[in-house]
């Protein structure tokens, strides 16, 4: 077998793990997008309630709107980090193939980009965790 073809087939084998990682990231982005949609829907309900000017609810509604805006920002940045992570994983796969096709050692570059992808994923998951905390804390507060 041609050594170059052997390198490429090895790269294909190595690319399988990042493809599974991309699937997981896409699932996370879908979950984040769903949460964002629910936050937007809730904000519309609260804003409609504010327009109706039901007595005694204006201050509570303004507080909830402010909380929903914080949660929206957190989810937005979590989505940004997850998408950035996915893009970096794509660059890892592309870098591995380019290295094999061009016969150059891109191992350091690929490893650096992969570390960047993991840092972006850690950031996105941390933001998601913070948003969930705010959602749960606020929901518990409104039940009393």
Structure notes:
This protein has 3 helices and no strands. The chain has 144 residues and is mainly alpha-helical. The chain starts with a helix and ends with a helix.
Features:
144 residues, mainly alpha, 3 helices, 92% helix, rod-shaped
Number of strands: 0
Poorly predicted segments: none
Residue share in helix: over 70%
Average pLDDT reading: 88
Give a short summary of the structure.
The protein is mainly α and 144 residues long. It is built from three helices and no strands.
Helix and strand layout, with pairings?
Layout: H1 3-52, H2 58-102, H3 107-143
